[in-house]
Amino acid sequence: MKKRRKQAAAIVTAVAMVLLAASCGQKDPIRRNLISDDSEEETSVLLFAPMERSKPDVQNIARTAFDKTVIMAEEQLDVRIEYNTYTAKDYQEKSYDDVSLDRIRHGMDDFYLLNPDVLQKMGEEGRLADLSGLDCAKNLREVVRLANTVDGKLVGIPQEVVVYGLFVNKDMFDRYKLKLPNTPEEFLECCRVFQEHGIETPVGANRWWLETFVFAQAYADLYNGSDTEAAIEALNSGESKYSDYMREGFEFLKEMMDLGYIDVEKAYTYEAIDGEGPDFLAQKTPIVMAYWGAANAETTYGNPDFNMQVIGFPSERGQMPIVSMTGISALADSERLEETLDVMEVILSDEALQAYAKTNKVISPSKNVEVECIPALKPLNDLINNGTYVLASNAGMKVEQWGNTCLIVRKLLNGASVGECMAEFDRLQEETLP
């Protein structure tokens, strides 16, 4: 169960790194504390990440957004940032999460790009530095601060906010005089009308992202109500149950399955975008779910032959974007912690985040940084800017959210009842209680 949970959670990094990765052929280098030149020693800090650095001597190479911010830090601080790189070939059966945990516990690097579940675990163990005192932390959106705070400490800051939404073929909605849905009831009605007009499967789904529907309905009130912190504390203490929050979303998914609005067999086996994407682009399926960057990338949904809109998932409070994010974290007991924090001040500054967001066309974690988005993403962007969202990863929750919910949704697809799925949430919660 533990291994499968990590594999499911790893999709977050796979998504967030689509626009970051340059290549992954470099073996994990021998650790070096100081890099020498002909005249004097140069300070070096070590980063562990899923991608290696672009080679500076290659002509006309497209720099990754992350590399651009690293270069800014090196030039401003006269420091060298060395990449220790994860590759599946080198680590074989170990996931990126497994390797990250091991390297942090052995103090092998100075700072890390971490998935939410690892950030949460290492924060709880006290192995990550508190970043709340950094100047760049003062500019964070509240959603970012909330998602990356463990036991009152800000232990991670991302360079982008990964937002999931419903990608819809607006032309098909217009053809049948349908308004874009806000509530679960409106969504089901749209699916009914599509089926009546011969569209056999209105919703294209894969084995990773159906939990987005669940999160929207489960936590719309929690994150958009009056006292989010108190609600989370009640869950952490056992006063409230995760199953009580999740039940409505799972019942909604079960109804979609029973009515045939989702092809359950395909959804259980499809990989993200590769499975349902072709039918969406061919205008056979009017609705799919995906992350923000998929609307910009030519290899995914960046160039459709129809009017595409990206909206929030249905909830009783209206459309809800689903937010997840990786985090850049510093090793608390690093021998070069001061130099590492200086580097993080630069790469997470508004100036660097502006360059990063402009390159990758993503939502920035800084409330001061905005990048013009394509028209298709404007509905989702407006919701985020208005503070309307649901977190799918929250380091302050004792039960890890994204990976666990994904696996339990797959149990539902494989024939488990809603009651059995809720019992699994109860079991996970009990494991976290004293």
Describe this protein's structure.
With 434 residues, this protein is of the alpha/beta class. Helix content is 42%, strand content 12%. The protein contains 19 helices and 13 strands. It has helices at residues 2-9, 11-16, 65-77, 88-91, 96-105, 116-124, 142-147, 170-175, 184-196, 211-224, 228-237, 242-258, 264-269, 277-281, 337-347, 350-360, 378-385, 402-413, 418-432, and strands spanning 34-36, 41-49, 80-85, 111-114, 149-150, 153-154, 162-169, 203-204, 287-291, 308-311, 322-324, 327-330, 390-391.
Main β sheet profile: 6 strands, mixed
Low-confidence stretches: 1-39, 57-62
> Roughly what percent helix?
40-55%
Chain-averaged pLDDT: 86
Strand content: 5-15%
Termini Cα gap? 21 Å
> What structural class do the secondary elements suggest?
alpha/beta
User: Looking at the structure, what is the overall shape?
Assistant: globular
Radius of gyration equals 22 Å
Number of contiguous helices: 19
Number of strands: 13
Short note summarizing the structure:
The chain is an alpha/beta fold and 434 residues long. The chain is 42% helix and 12% strand. A hairpin with a 4-residue loop joins strand 1 and strand 2 (41-49).
